[in-house]
Amino acid sequence: MSGLAERDLDPEEIEEDAFASSTQTSTLTWINWFTSLPGHDYFCEVHEDFIEDDFNLTGLQSMVPFWKEALEMVLDVEPEEDSSKIPDVSIVESSAELLYGLVHQRFIVTKAGLASMVEKYEQGHFGACPRVFCHSTHVLPCGRADMPGIDTVKLYCPNCGDIYSPPSSKYASVDGAFFGNTFAPLFFQTYPELLSAPFYAPTASSSTPTPTTDRRISPSPSPGGQTVGGETITNPNPHGGQKAALGRVYVPRIYGFKVSERARSGPRMKWLRERPERAEELDLVDHKGRWKDGSTGNGAAGTDDEVVKEIKKGSLFDDEDEPEDDEEEEEEEEEAQQTVSHSEVSQVKGTTAVPGRR
């Protein structure tokens, strides 16, 4: 035992361990430190070769103050000996963060950047969609603008096609321009197997089952007993995604009865969440989303009969009033005109009767 204790306290081994720890801390670059900060887990590590290429930095010099000092900080280059010209370190750090964010926007749309982000996406580093009927579909960070200072980062869900705010306040300081509005669409065009199909194939356990004999579905297990992002399918459209869409739509009910869309508390714009049940139904509508003449279809999954009838008539929006309401309004106007004409006639008769009495 004493020999083991002496071996554990060997000064040579202690020096080696100290040297190894010092080398690990010395290899920590500014990019590693920046991406490890709280709220920066959406970022990927941009390759230094990409930053050192002047072509990739075109147009950024006029947007970033203290360009030279910020670039040196990002690349871990020692500053010049003349320290009198170097401004406050906090100002240089903010410029370096802005520079890295703008470079990050350009890097993630390249082949190497997309490969880095797809690993984080598949591992769920960006979180899941807060919508209940999306069943924890993985989301992707995106921005509403390419210029900094306009909006913060948002999360895009490929199943419902909407964007959401991050669940934590630690992402409130992350600018959306560091991801841009090009990254999310380009990401799913590059990896179509991660995108949901444009049609919804309800399973046998759903309320409106349909035959799925022509679909080859292979279930993929997921944690929690739920399907994350839909099952893997063979989509006839190679550019439409290879994951089955989770097309359930929430229908508000009062004591078991559906709330009409005409009610004040009724559902609004429900057609945005609806998907057709079969891929063949996509050819049955025109470019405006209306059913073609002489074609029949079952409509989108989760819709009631009234909505399907309105779709077949070609009225997807409620901008125009119903013809019955127009007829009622015309009848009311005619009655009002008749009453006005009767009153005018009576006034004329009254004025002509006065001279007759004289």
Q: Top keywords for this entry?
A:
358 residues, protein kinase ck2 holoenzyme, chain C, domain 1, Casein_kinase_II_beta-like, mainly alpha, disordered C terminus, transferase, two-stranded antiparallel ribbon, single chain, N-terminal domain of TfIIb, 3-stranded antiparallel sheet, disordered N terminus
Description:
The chain is 35% helix and 3% strand. With 358 residues, it is mainly α. Among the domains are: 2-107, protein kinase ck2 holoenzyme, chain C, domain 1, CATH 1.10.1820.10; 124-203 and 217-248, N-terminal domain of TfIIb (Single Sheet), CATH 2.20.25.20. A three-stranded antiparallel β-sheet has the order 1-2-3, with no helix packed on it. Strands 4-5 form a two-stranded antiparallel sheet. A hairpin with a 2-residue loop joins strand 4 and strand 5 (257-258). Helix 5 crosses helix 6. Residues 1-7, 18-25, 205-226, 294-322 and 351-358 have low confidence and may be disordered. This is Casein kinase II subunit beta. Belongs to the casein kinase 2 subunit beta family.
Question: Which class of secondary structure composition applies to the elements?
Answer: mainly alpha
Q: Walk across the major sheet and give the strand order.
A: 1-2-3
**Total number of helical segments?**
10
How far the N terminus sits from the C terminus, by CA atoms, comes to 143 Å
Order of helices and strands: HHHHHHHEEEHEEHH
CATH architecture of the domain at 124-203 and 217-248: Single Sheet
Considering DSSP H and I runs of 4 or more, what fraction of the residues is helical? 25-40%
Q: Tell me about the biggest sheet?
A: 3 strands, antiparallel
At the first level of CATH, the class of the domain at 124-203 and 217-248 is: Mainly Beta
Assembly type: single chain
GO cellular component, one term: cytoplasm
Region (Disordered): 1-20, 203-245, 287-358
Pfam family, one: CK_II_beta
GO molecular function, one term: protein kinase regulator activity
